[in-house]
Amino acid sequence: MNAAPGRRGRARPAFRLTPFRLAACYGAFAWMILLVALPHLLLAAASLAARGDPGYLDFSRLSLDAYARLLSPEFATVFASSTALAGGATLICLLLGYPFAWILARAPRKWRGFLLLLTILPFWTNSLIRTYALIALLGAKGLINAALLGLGLISAPLELLYTDFAVFLGLTYTLLPFMILPLYGSIEKLDPRLAEAARDLGAGRTATFLRVSLPLTLPGVAAGCMFVFLPAMGMFYIPDVLGGARTLLLGSFIKAQFLTARDWPFGAAASVTLMLLMAVLYAFFVRSGGLGAAHGARRRAA
Amino acid sequence: MRTTLAALAAKALLLCALAVLLPALAAPEARAAKKELFLFIWSEYIPDAVLADFRKQTGIRVTATTYDSSEAMYSKLKLTGGAGYDIVVPSADYVMRMGAEGLLLRIDKARLKNLRNIDPKFLDRPFDPGNAWSVPYMWGTTALAVNSARVDPKAVQSWGDLWRPEYKGRLLLPNDMRGVLGMGLKLQGRSLNSMSEAEVKAAFEKLLPLMDAVKVFDSDSPKQAILSGEVDLAVMWNGEAKVAAEEDPKIVYVYPREGFSMWMDNLSIPKGAKNADAAYAFIDYILRPEVSARICSEMGYATPNKAAMARLDAAELANPVIYPPEDAYARGEFEGNVGQAVTFYEQYWTRLKTR
Known about the structure:
CATH topology of the domain at 76-242 and 276-301 in chain A: MetI-like fold
Order of helices and strands of chain A: HEEHHHHHHHHHHHHH
Radius of gyration of chain A: 24 Å
Strand order of the largest sheet of chain A: 1-2
Distance between the termini of chain A: 21 Å
Number of strands of chain A: 2
Shape of chain A: globular
Largest sheet of chain A: 2 strands, antiparallel
Shape of chain B: globular
CATH superfamily of the domain at 76-242 and 276-301 in chain A: MetI-like
Number of helices of chain A: 14
Largest interface: A-B, 38 and 42 residues
Structural class of chain B: alpha/beta
Distance between the termini of chain B: 57 Å
Strand content of chain B: 15-25%
CATH class of the largest domain in chain B: Alpha Beta
Strand content of chain A: under 5%
Structural class of chain A: mainly alpha
CATH architecture of the largest domain in chain B: 3-Layer(aba) Sandwich
Oligomer: heterodimer
CATH topology of the largest domain in chain B: D-Maltodextrin-Binding Protein, domain 2
Number of strands of chain B: 10
Largest sheet of chain B: 7 strands, mixed
């Protein structure tokens, strides 16, 4: 409450803890502590413990051994394949999502709500079911091949399922809305007069886009990329189901350490490493002003 | 403001601690009614009618809770120290592990007069010598399903045949380290429960070139890929193969000559069972020939109960996917727990998948 005396009249009323607010605060704090902070602390602690048998963890010998074991060529491969997959999916989503969001933001106002609804409509179905539905489309006896064979366009089924194409299709299909929504937020608040001014000052369409519109929507780009890249990094069921599980990804690697190898410290160390990476990306995102894009609509209303 | 928030946080932490502790203080001894049995079993693994009949005969009401992975069942019992259920149905490897970790009650065979119905070839197996911890419930195999319309089953009687170049890109393997490494071990004449790192390493080296021939790794629903024609050769457990063969009779099930993996699910009594008397009554009831016959023909798996087999119809007994012929059975090996060796199994598996 550092408001200058002269502005006191316009300051917000002081925050008062009514019983309802108090209860809401307790609820939120308890939730965060019990279900977010504690599990993460336990995970961090587990990554420092030693393997115990028959128990899972032995806290009597703490070390960074599990992290040292992550420095193996196998983990590097796992990490590289996951990064490549997540990076590829992010790029595809960006290339598809940007024009999409642009059209959405420039559509007549009365249509926008409906178009946004269409964007998030797939979320109404469980993503695992949607992934299995893609199998029904892509399989050797699936809808696409059956249709093409029926039309006589091909003589043998195309190999669509269990390919990189299927993996990227599945990832893009699932994650595209996460790219579109923040982009939409930042494109919508882009003032059309800026583009007009650029055109008046002699910039062509390309130059206007590259030097005015794109830089102004970069926070949306950063937010969208983060919302796609981070989940794609840990996602393994889509690549496993559509790609035939031929590459080992971070998510399955961590799961295997906990469930089959029963090497909790190693699995925990891999999880903590992944979270640290995400934290670094998040910090980068905040510094690039991306957080503003997420709240773009609010700022615009103010 | 800051102090208020800090105080709030402290109180919330206290609430959390209470939330964790209270149930632990209040819960036990609330439900030890003698006429109730808590059954913890795989989903879709016992007909409801069997439980209803058991209640009619004994007055004991069965409350069934299901799981769909051994690990989920194990973790739960490990956390409670073996309490909460009167009967649990662990697979062979988990019998071995849970018995050794003191999570199971030693079976008093004198209380199971129907145990003599079990075929002796399923008793006293290496995963539970003397059946100290378990009574066989249902069993099966993991072998090779072949689409005979595209591959002649006679050409793939050995695991080694899968390495032939013409099968490249037409093969499905389990997405499971024991399944794949076990196949390599068998091919080299070893036990699939080998705890020797040298043997597992040799299996790994043999398997390495096969990895590029694999189109799909799938343990959840492998029948789907062979039915849809994505692959022509698929290593899968017989429950999946049976459904696949029913849907497409061209799919045949081959028991490779070097041997293959077998599974067995077993009835066990957890250490903390509240109602062991009811548990014995339940196991003895399941061991009745007519009850076992009913369960296995409804569920579609093989029974280890010899007296029950006499009551099954010939078609079911003649189905080689459910009941392997005697000479094939002799080549099978039950998959047990490999203890600490799991560490290098996992390492070689990771190396196979990241080649």
